[in-house]
Structures are given as structure tokens and as C-alpha cells.
């Protein structure tokens, strides 16, 4: 997976400049999305037959919510809302957006290089030649290459959305059901495996995107050991958080909802509080086809994703609603230390409560 995710470490223009590299990241994201959705439908059917209505409903919610957000994200990035693409929008309504986008990307890739076309822009990146010595590189980007870059860029975002709005809560739920029932049927094992693969891939892409945003003017390349370190770091961080929540929920089911809601609400409101304190106005041109209400919905969705990511791991980037790009590119080490300190204390408190109250004192 580290090798497949390697291309996510490169900017869109760098992607399109390499004709021989296939769109692996698009295929992998689509396969994970379809596989996890199919497994969730399968598990939901099993819960329906066994009359476990609560587990069935939660499984469907954790399948549909990220799917809807993925459809909206793909339409937003490709600007379909203001165009004449009724068939594509219909497929998005049917939750088939990633499939049709993957087909479009493959068709574009197969057509690349057949006809010579004039470039529409020039990409400039600084490349590290030796220690402290940078050389600026220029690359010409044409219409077809730019379209391919847009597809790759969109699927990187959807991989993160699928991982933290769907796969992480889905894995937590299915692991909790397994602990309660004390057995793992094949259908649930497949769903948990798909969720784990989606989480690992999404967390890897999240780190790569964060580094790209911070070093936007530079050509950043990653080695295989760097990918392995990122995967181990993110996997252990998310696995610890999921395990703590499952243990706490197993002993104090009525209280876990309070912990989750408090975390999500606090993390959701934090960017808005900082925005209101800055005294800036709502950005009305996040998307030219959006009204003020549409802009608020888009910003709310981004904030929800931000809170879901920080619920399970460090987001690596800070959401700043006052910025045009919505991202604070400066690294705030104080906020990083505060996040991990608070998360350590919270996890320790939840484990201690689980240990002393698992007998049903509450």
C-alpha cells in the first residue's frame, strides 16, 4: 500500500507530467469505497435477518453518511453543479459517483499522448538538488493533463472522507458488536478488514496532503521507509483510540455517546470560535455557484470532517475559516502538544473508568 500511495505524495501537475504512471490512487480509492460499501450492505442484511435493528441502523448510517459527502465532494471539485451534466449528477444521487469518475479518469489516461495539445499553464516547483541547494523546475500542463490532475486531487480528498467519516466509526461499531457477541462471523470480519484498509490508506493520504499544503512551492518526494513510519504512526494512533472507545463502550454503553458528542461538538466549534474572534466575514466565494447558505453548508461539512479526523488522530493541518484556502499553513507545535496531551489524559481516564466500573456501577 505504501508503494501505491507514493503517487499521493506528488502535486497534481507532477502527476500529469508522467505519462507512463497509471492512476493507481484513483483505482485503489474506488475499489476500497465499493468494497466497504458492499461489505456494509452484506452485514446490514445479516443484522436484519437476526433482527438486530440497532446494529443494522448504525451500520447503514456509517455507510451512507460518508457516501453522501463523497458524492458532494466529487461534484464540488469537478464543478458539476453549474454545468449541463444531468447524467453524472443522477449517478451521484444513486451513490455511484466514484465509479463514473474512475471510468472518466481511465478514459482520460488512455487518451493521453495521442494528440499534441498546447499547454494552458506552467507549474513551478523547487527541487532539492543537494543540502540547502534548490533548483526551480518548470513543467507545462495541458487541458488533458489538468483534467487528470483534478481527478487525482478529488480522489485523495474522498479517501480521507471515507476513512474518517465512515471507516473509523464503522470499525469501532463492528468491533464493539464483536466484543459483545464474542464471535466474529465472516461478513463482519470482511467489513472490519475493508474498514481497516480504508483507514490506513486514508490516514496515509492525510499526512501526504498536509505535507503538500505546508510545502506547496516544493517538490516533495517520500522514500519507502518514510511511508512505513507514517503508516505505523497513524495505525497505532487510530488503533489506540478505537480500542479505548470500544472498551469504554463495552462497560459504560450509556456514557460513550456523551464522550463522542462532547468531542465532536468541541472540535467542531473550535474553528468557528477562532473565526468569530478574528472579526472576519464569511467567505462568499468559496464556490462561485454557491449562495451564502451554500457556502455555510460547505464550510460546515469541512468543519465536520476536521472534527471527525481530530476525534481519532491529529489532523496535521489546522482549519482556518478566515483564510481563502481554509488552511493555516504554519505549524503550531503548541497546539500539537496540547492535542496529544489532552488525548493521552482522556484515553487514560476512559481506561481507568472502564477498569473500575466494568462491573456496572453506573
UniProtKB/TrEMBL annotation:
The chain crosses the membrane at residues 24-43, 55-77, 189-212, 218-236, 243-273, 293-317, 337-357. Keywords: Membrane, Transmembrane, Transmembrane helix. It is a multi-pass membrane protein. The keyword Transmembrane applies. It comes from the Eukaryota. Its main location: membrane. It is found in: Membrane. Pfam families: XK-related. The keyword Transmembrane helix applies. Belongs to the XK family. This is XK-related protein.
